[in-house]
């Protein structure tokens, strides 16, 4: 089938284990530190926030961790997800490269986020937890946890960053349809939110502050645990089902990826597609590939951030983690890829970057929307603003191949569709979408306030 465009795995071939890259790294990442003592945290320190099974996954060094059968049952609603060959995009670009994309927009929530929301909800339910609190930016994670919480009988409260809460009202409606409560952050329901509002009643919010609110609720209520959609090891672990499926599907194509691209905000999508392929390389099962993380120029944690210990939230309630960070007090501009507006990069991705295993690029939102529209008009799928960054990165790689006359194979993860982001596309078409830059002075100030760790 020389013109085949879609590659589907049989349901029986869906991975039944998650891949933990820690087992294959040449050097372990630095441990998280207690925010009060500055000492490495233990399981008891995380117990107020997470169920025991999640804590065990967070610190595990095992290469493979079994996916519980009840979780697999839910996954089978949409997994395995399809792999596509983007032949029309290739033709438009005039590139000798082959472009493939793994499409995660087929999930009920329309993104890759349920890959972690479902197991997190299940593990909490198994331990008798009744309520979950969480944060969300653009709303993909909040809607995914609302979906998963509804399946397992959990009450979910979502703190959505104010700028995205206002920009994307239908994400909020989706969360409420699945039974969750969605509040704008900063809110008047937490000390962290009230303090932010007292300082600036019109504050657009940040993921760091929304995390503070969600963590505060979990820490103060014994019947509530905290769930998050990116950054920490267990979330990245859950997403590796994406890359494992992609390995099997690329074998079906007869091609092998030379370059693997993903967008990065907190890091879950990039880790999901890249870590299983990096693992092959680390185990000596494959030669060197290039792994390209694409982030927004307005919130460039990998390309402009400092690799240092920092808090994961604005109010400094979370453990200190070693990551590329713009500073926990840094507030990115209100660009439309709300899921990428986080001040730090996942510690594990930061670590592999420091090991030289991946590279990073940053682009402004207008260039990314231009790439997203080009993709929609050739391949038919309207991508989420976050996913347009991966498309932009893949297009740049394809154009490089054209300039160099190289017929490389490019694989990227299309992390979600943009059906609830059409206001952003309309702003782009109306010429109202502008490239926003962060404040250099604010960045310098935020970095100057990084905690001093011995």
UniProtKB/TrEMBL annotation:
UniProt keyword annotation of rRNA processing present: no
Matches recorded under Pfam families: PALP (PF00291)
Keywords, alphabetical: Amino-acid biosynthesis, Aromatic amino acid biosynthesis, Lyase, Pyridoxal phosphate, Tryptophan biosynthesis
SUPFAM superfamilies in alphabetical order: Tryptophan synthase beta subunit-like PLP-dependent enzymes
Cofactor(s) of this protein: pyridoxal 5'-phosphate
A GO cellular-component term linked to this record: cytoplasm
Function: The beta subunit is responsible for the synthesis of L-tryptophan from indole and L-serine.
Protein name in UniProt: Tryptophan synthase beta chain
Organism annotation: Candidatus Dactylopiibacterium carminicum
